[in-house]
Amino acid sequence: MHLDKAKKRIAKQVKKGFNGYPMVSLAYFGESPDMAKEVVISFIVEEGAEPQLQKFVCQTDAREDETIQSTLVKIIERADAATVTEVAGVALIG
Q1: Using the 8-state DSSP alphabet, how is residue 50 labeled?
Q2: What distance in Å separates the CA atoms of residue 61 and residue 38, rounded to the nearest whole number?
């Protein structure tokens, strides 16, 4: 899947807002606001359930990595997520 297509599909899901569970949440982390070297995807099957976390790390910006973005789309689809949220910006680590 092309990078632009993957990013558009994720953005479309995020724009739908809260539609119940299961819910997938995306958060990006990096050493500066301009470079997200990590993305954490959390999956919550129902309200009050413990989130299942998966982290992807790369040397470049994860938001611009075609493989990572395509993988995120596949995870969202396979989870049959009713809600997809994305934390705005890049949280600083380090």
Answers
A1: P
A2: 8
pLDDT for 94 equals 73
Burial class (CB in 10 A: 0-12, 13-18, 19+), 56: middle
Handedness of CA 70, 71, 77, 81 (dihedral sign): negative
Would you state the pLDDT for residue 88? 93
Q: Structural domain of residue 70, as residue ranges?
A: 3-92
The answer to whether the CB of 90 falls within 8 A of the CB of 36 is yes
d(CA 12, CA 57) in angstroms, rounded, equals 24
**Contact in structure between 72 and 39 (CB atoms under 8 Å):** yes
Domain count, the chain: 1
Predicted confidence (pLDDT) at residue 22 exceeds the cutoff of 90: yes
